[in-house]
Write a structure and sequence with these properties.
By secondary structure, the protein is of the alpha+beta class. It is built from two helices and eleven strands; from the N terminus they run αβββαββββββββ. It starts with a helix and ends in a 10-residue tail after the last strand.
Length: about 160
């Protein structure tokens, strides 16, 4: 946990006043700037060593064009996925499709770029949450939507 705190402080220092949102997981780091650009950095041992040595984190990084200028207000992650919520209630998902964790019914094993959840596109989502593989979202009308692994009733059915 100590290394995580050092890493967060160094990222904040690097982006200085341009940093709007910082989201750190075991697998990735997501940075959103005040100009609404979103960057994803893969986390691995080499990345941590290089960052610690060189004070830079631009190793295995990419801009998430699908999320730039969308007004992202929150990120949540499960074991193998990340979901993002926009200010206007849209949900984007990406990561591994294990037990339907992405909620998109596609056959590919992994989605590398964030995708708009089409099933929720006509809903105004106000909150998001993730477990290891299930995801839940809450609409402004109080409806709860859930998808993913349900071996013990995690998604409520």
């Amino acid at each position: 946990m100590y290394l995580e705190n050092i890493l967060s402080v160094k990222i904040k220092e690097f982006f200085n006043e341009n940093l709007k949102l910082l989201f750190v997981t075991q697998r990735i780091i997501i940075i959103m700037t005040k100009k609404d650009k979103v960057y994803e950095f893969e986390r691995n041992f080499k990345t941590l060593l290089e960052f610690n040595k060189n004070k830079y984190l631009f190793i295995h990084s990419k801009i998430l064009n699908e999320l730039c200028f969308k007004g992202i207000k929150d990120f949540k992650n499960g074991y193998s996925l990340v979901i993002a919520l926009t200010n206007d209630g849209k949900v984007f998902c990406w990561g591994y499709k294990i037990w339907g964790a992405l909620g998109n019914r596609k056959n590919q094993w992994k989605t590398y770029e964030p995708e708009l959840n089409q099933y929720l596109s006509d809903k105004n989502i106000i909150d998001i949450s993730c477990g290891s593989y299930p995801s839940l979202v809450l609409s402004n009308s109080g409806e709860l939507y859930a998808w993913g692994w349900n071996n013990c009733g995690q998604i409520g059915n």
